[in-house]
Amino acid sequence: xxxxxxxxxxxxxINAFRKDNKKIGLVPTMGALHKGHASLxxxxxKENDVTVVSVFVNPTxxxxxxxxxxxxxxxxxxxxxxxxxxxxxxxxPTVEEIYPEPDTRSFSYAPTDSVMEGAFRPGHFNGVxxxxxxxxxxxxxDSAYFGEKDFQQIAVIKAMVNDYRSxxxxxxxxxxxxxxxxxxxxxxxxxxxxxxxxxxxERTIAPYIFKALSASVEYSKTHTVEETKNMxxxxxxxxxxxxxxxxxxxxxxxxxxxxxxxxxxxxxxxITVFCGATPIRLIDNINYK
Length: 289
What we know:
The protein has 289 residues and is of the alpha/beta class. The protein has 2 domains: 2-180, HUPs (Rossmann fold), CATH 3.40.50; 193-287, Pantoate--beta-alanine Ligase, Chain: A,domain 2 (2-Layer Sandwich). Helices cover 41% and strands 19% of the residues. It has 12 helices and 9 strands. The protein has helices spanning 7-19, 35-47, 65-70, 75-84, 95-98, 117-120, 124-139, 151-166, 170-174, 200-205, 208-220, 225-237, and strands at 2-4, 24-29, 50-55, 89-91, 143-147, 176-180, 242-251, 267-275, 280-287. Strands 1-4-3-2-5-6 form a 6-stranded parallel sheet, sandwiched between helices. It has a 3-stranded antiparallel sheet with strand order 7-8-9, with helices on one face. A hairpin with a 4-residue loop joins strand 8 and strand 9 (280-287). Helix 7 (124-139) crosses helix 8 and helix 11 (208-220) runs antiparallel to helix 12.
């Protein structure tokens, strides 16, 4: 495994692999890796000849400076994990390497990027598109792997890739976006780098998020969308230390709110909860049908 910090060096390595007709997988991460990330990398290693994992805390997708500063950074431990599961290249650039000058590109894929996270974190998805598009252009992967915990992010990235395809970008024509299932702790808490920021008492209550989501699926079989939504929010808010920022039950393909279970073939519940006094912002989602 090689650790590369330079864009030019990365491109040179990728070009050599391309000349040998190697199939290339990319796993974009912000580091502080856990079993969820490892599952993405393991799948990429299985499906490709070369797996590139980026480790970069991208400043342009944070609309809260404090959130950016406290985001965990554990590059040495990340590299040990990545080497143990067959990663070919770790791309770990500096901010200056990725953004030698400000990225002024603007991405807009409404309504996909304007609801839920888009509404509560202005500029977040623009920053996601800035960094992910750069990584796609650097690596030109055949496949890119993303965890379904970030359900809305996957939809936005798919919209971005389709946009680049419409502009006849060759890398976009070749690229397949591969969503991967959420990996959870034994108590149901979705694995997240932010979980390391939870105090012991906060870690104890955080699993109630998924517990409420799971209960809502059974509840939904005999109740309306609105009743299911309210029950889920009330159940979580009843736990001291948890506060729902939003819970939306949406068409899984368009991310638009549904009013009836018959409104869409696939329906997803997407939630964000503040946990603890700090607080730590946790996201999760569940499928209703």
